[in-house]
Design a protein that fits this description.
alpha/beta, D-Maltodextrin-Binding Protein, domain 2, binds ligand PBG, Porphobilinogen_deaminase_C, Porphobilinogen deaminase, hydroxymethylbilane synthase activity, HemC
Length: about 325
């Protein structure tokens, strides 16, 4: 236990069911660490939660989910903000810091469907919902016979759209479904070779004001060393490729016995081009390994692929 302990901690969170589960999870962990502390949640509605009619890549990306929470940290209305690490921009900067990364849950993408047991069982022409360019690109490449259609909304909304027949199947993060008690809806977990996860998928991050060093010390016992190393590597890939959810980019690291294996890919969302790279080495060099994987992608033309996506040539 740190020398001092907090009297009160306020956790800023988005008001979605997933965000509330995550904030409550952190609340319970902190409460167990500091039984005398009052740990409270402050629920906020973010711009990202309000805009539901356009795909995320069109409305400005991940920052939408983070800004309102950061304002609460700045105002002193909250001490910490809990995020799905996947949704935290890689360019998080002063006066904020990502002070703790918690142990990761299942990082894989999950296949959810009423009638079908997995991607390989879907008939040609079946409609698969996802709004992630990363998932779309990998699906189109591996399963060109399927139709990929956009899917937005929080987890419950997405499942409702599947259930009312808008899609034959949808792809969601396994961790999110698990957290909401919806694990039974998962028909198959996609292997990293099939659908390489997004940087940070399945992990939680806690953001604080960097100046509040006492907070960092109080939160430190929640950190998971292996997940932190993976996050460093994966986020290094994203950073070097200018990653956001507007970019079809995947980065996935694992650590076994101190040894790290990082895989990364960028792809054209239409499945026409997919570039992979990987790196292995000691987990202690996580960030360098992520950078090496990113350089591998860049050496194979990743920058050109991404530039072409941002500035598409007029199609005939
Ligand atoms: N894109 C939104 C988002 N952010 C975090 C999760 C799930 C939990 C996680 O990955 O940690 C999800 C839902 C999804 O991608 O299906």
């Amino acid at each position: 236990m740190p020398a001092s302990s907090p009297a009160k901690l306020v956790i800023a969170t988005r008001a979605s069911r997933l965000a509330l589960w995550q904030a409550e999870h952190v609340r319970a962990r902190l409460q167990a660490l500091y039984p005398l502390c009052r740990v409270e949640l402050l629920e906020l509605t973010t711009r990202g939660d309000q805009i539901l009619d356009r795909t995320l890549s069109k409305v400005g990306g991940k920052g939408l989910f983070v800004k309102e929470l950061e304002t609460a940290l700045l105002d002193g209305r909250a001490d910490l903000a809990v995020h799905s690490l996947k949704d935290v921009p890689v360019d998080l900067h002063e006066p904020f810091e990502l002070s703790v990364i918690l142990e990761r849950d299942d990082p894989r993408d999950a296949f959810v469907s009423g009638r079908h047991a997995g991607l390989d069982e879907l008939p040609a022409g079946a409609v698969v919902g996802t709004s992630s360019l990363r998932r779309e690109a990998q699906l189109r490449l591996g399963y060109p016979q399927l139709q990929v259609r956009p899917l937005r909304g929080n987890l419950d909304t997405r499942l409702a759209k599947l259930d009312r027949g808008d899609y034959d199947a949808i792809i969601l993060a396994a961790a999110g479904l698990k957290r909401l008690g919806l694990e039974a809806r998962i028909r198959a977990r996609l292997a990293p070779e099939q659908s390489l996860p997004a940087a940070g998928q399945g992990a939680l991050g806690i953001e604080t004001l960097a100046a509040r060093t006492e907070l960092r010390a109080w939160l430190a016992p929640l950190a998971c060393a292996d997940t932190t190393a993976c996050a460093l590597a994966e986020r290094a890939v994203s950073r070097m490729l200018g990653g956001s959810c507007q970019v079809p980019l995947a980065a996935y690291a694992r650590v076994d016995d101190g040894q790290m294996y990082v895989r990364a890919l960028v792809a054209h969302p239409d499945g026409s081009n997919l570039i992979r790279a990987e790196a292995r080495g000691p987990a202690a060099s996580a960030e360098q390994l992520g950078e090496a994987a990113a350089r591998g992608l860049l050496d194979k033309g990743a920058a050109e692929l991404l530039a072409a996506l941002q500035d598409p040539a007029p199609s005939a």
